[in-house]
Design brief:
With 77 residues, the protein is an alpha+beta fold. The protein has a domain at 52-77. Helix content is 36%, strand content 13%. It has a two-stranded antiparallel ribbon. Strand 1 and strand 2 form a beta hairpin. The termini are far apart.
């Protein structure tokens, strides 16, 4: 019985201390980004993986480019 009382006392103390220390600050998207640089505001985690998908001559990730002598599939930049 004594171990149970000690365990409950410790649990209550930890929960109480955690409740005092925990601070949830939620800010709206617009007001939270006012202090960020413009590059960070316009950053997108989505990257382009292929130029335009399957083309007439080239698979995804390549585009049809013509040089001075011939045309061929070249990687997208």
């Amino acid at each position: 019985m004594r171990k149970l009382a000690i365990a409950l006392g410790v649990a209550v103390a930890v929960l109480f201390a955690g409740g005092l220390a925990w601070k949830a600050d939620a800010t709206p998207l617009k007001s939270g980004t006012l202090n960020l640089p413009s590059a960070a505001k316009h950053h997108s985690p989505v990257e382009q993986t292929a130029c335009y998908g399957w083309g007439r001559y080239c698979p995804p990730g390549y585009t049809w480019r013509c040089g001075p002598y011939k045309c061929k599939c070249r990687p997208c930049y």
